[in-house]
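Thread: Newbie trying to understand structure tokens

Hi all, I'm a second-year student working on a class project, and my supervisor (Dr. K.) asked me to get a predicted structure for one chain before our next meeting. I've only ever worked with sequences, so writing a 3D structure as a token string is new to me. If someone could post the tokens and maybe explain what I'm looking at, I'd be very grateful. Here's the chain:
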Amino acid sequence: MPRLPAPFARMIEVRGTPCTVTDIEDLSPSFRRVYFAGEGLRGREWAPCQVTTFLVSPTEFRRYTPDAFDATAGAMSILFHRHSVGAEGPPSPGDAWLNGLAIGDSVSAMGLEATRSFRAREVPGPVLVCGDGTTVGLWNSLIRWQGDRARVCGVVEVPAPDVPLVRDLLPGVDVVAQSEQPGARVLSWLDDAPRSGEVTHAYLSGHGQTIQRARNVVRARCDLHRSVIYTQPYWATGKVGL
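---
Reply by user tm_fold:
Sure, no problem. This is what the structure looks like when written as tokens:
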């Protein structure tokens, strides 16, 4: 997302929905779930693929995907993937903001929406998903939202210490330990996957450059038209704050 001068960033933030941090759970080295509550969340329509935005520094915004939403109670949770865990140097702005959150803190959640081209659809499955650590909360919510309507399959790569947790969160999805090259394990899995005409549509998210390559592979392997392959990059090599 763009960086704005602090006064303008603050003007946007105050228009958001006031929320309070009600609980924080560290689930594995890289994954932290944070629970939020706010009167402005009551009655909101929600489905997987929708994102909300937080001001994570005086000048920078980041978008995150709720993994659960309760419009009756006015509550939601977000499963954060902390990129900076184990990395050299200072944490990213998003991770620094997340590390500083405490129960009782007040935050402003700006928006709750999905792009027209990347929305959850009630279409009979199987549904193919591909992604990385930034997409675990998204696929977790999609699996629960689909329920018995459609089987969700596919592949997600995450840091090796987080694999056991993510396997529990994403039943039916192959979870592999990531390598130094983003997307390498996802693309390898797709290349080795048997050709299948059973998949009805696919969601590809996470690393932008990986999505670009995976889309062509999925079209060929699953015999899908490009119109039923939905893509949404969350980050990209060489870009900050996508």
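A couple of things are worth pointing out once you decode it. Residues 21 and 101 are 8 Å apart (CA to CA). The longest helix spans residues 208-222. Feel free to ask follow-ups in this thread.
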